[in-house]
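Q: Sequence in, structure out?
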Amino acid sequence: MDIVTPGAYVETMRQVRVLVDQQEREALVWSELRRLAAERGLQVLDPMGKMNEVLHLVEWPTVLAGTFGEEHLRLPDEVLITAMQSHQRYFPLVDSEGNLANSFFYVMNGEPAHAEQITAGNERVLEGRIEDAEFSFEKDLAVGIEQMARGLDRVVFHVKIGTMRDKTDRLVHLTAHLAGTVGAPADVQGWALEAARLAKADQVSVMVREFADLEGVMGETYARMEGFHDEVAVAIREQYLPDVSGGRPPRSAAGALLATAEKVDNVVAAFATGEPPSGSKDPYGLRRAAMGMVAIAFQHGFTYDLRALCQRAYDGLERFPGLVGRESAVGDAVDFVKDRLARFLVDNGIARDAVDAVLPTSDVFLDLRRRAAALDCFRDSDGWDDLVTAFTRPSNLATKLPPEEVGPDVDPGLFSEDAENGLYQAWRAAEDRVTGLVVTQHYYEVLEALAALRPAIDRYFDDVLVMAQDEAVRLNRLRLLWRIAEGMRAIARLERLQG
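A: Exactly. Output:
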């Protein structure tokens, strides 16, 4: 059939059973899936996102239904769903209560003249995959999760940093450190440590060797079947969450602790082995891991020092030879995670320059968010110009203080002008107030206290010749200005603000 004009292309192709428009194909497939599911009183799922693959495999889609043996429903849902979706691209079905049905939909190309035979072929393929999974499942149950955990020294995690047993030991230590740092209750700490001990056990299971997507899922299943506390089982599964960008963080506190330990170990290990992400390449999913650490901290209110946690992670790697040095690896890992934090804060409505201004001032996610939010909000206040002036005037001259002269304290005995003592006393009072407000993270009030220094600073520059001829006086005056500028920079690098 000839295509007479470019504008006739879509309709001409439709006449020969080719739907050119991808969106139209997708709408048609979903419409048919939902219609056929509703006829059966069921709902159709696509948990592994196979629709995008299906759309590019068919030109004229037709949705057909198949079934598998009801006896297979004793297997965990995730096993059956993986068997249906991972290679076959079938769509599973659930009832109104979320229970998996022993039926599925599949999409084929064209209008089949022999739908019954085609469906029977698909059912045979799926039955074979499920029977293989069932055999593997029974073998794993015979071994047991404890025995699996004892076999982790036979599985290499990374050639430079040991086995899965080494990885497990690091997770246990990191989880214990983190649980103590955030003040987790004793029962949560116990669940998290038990989960960390068993976290990688399913890596030696037959099921995970055959279906890699089921790591964590099978660990949870085997732990639950062997009588471990539900929170332990859930945490084993949740260690990999969020598993997609913007995905759901772990629900349980034990899972959140283990997931954070898992992610920081992966991030620091990558920098220690000299394999950080570069450009668009991120084979270990470290950007997602770092963003996951941020999301978990905010979701669960975890307050911990990122740099200290990365140092702990490096502690577990230090015995291995040939790694990137501690200072470089930890520093780069911290900066990498903080970059994800910055993106998170900007995505949640805080101006980028406000985020950049506070990033060097703290290594605690929640603290940094409060600093950035307060700074961004304060720029709309009446005190903004006062704050900028109170910082800019001292900081401009403070650069003239030689680095070797930073150490000595300001000497009030060298003051010769009232404005000098006035600024010195105003700064000491502000410093005391700021110290208390920082402890309680009331950063808006901190900025108000710093902005209130402007009258004393203006008077100082009106009445005092900073660059006096007497060297001792000059250095003392510069030292006071340096103390003020650095004190403000400890709250936020105000020079990074764009206006």
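The first strand starts at residue 43 and ends at 44.
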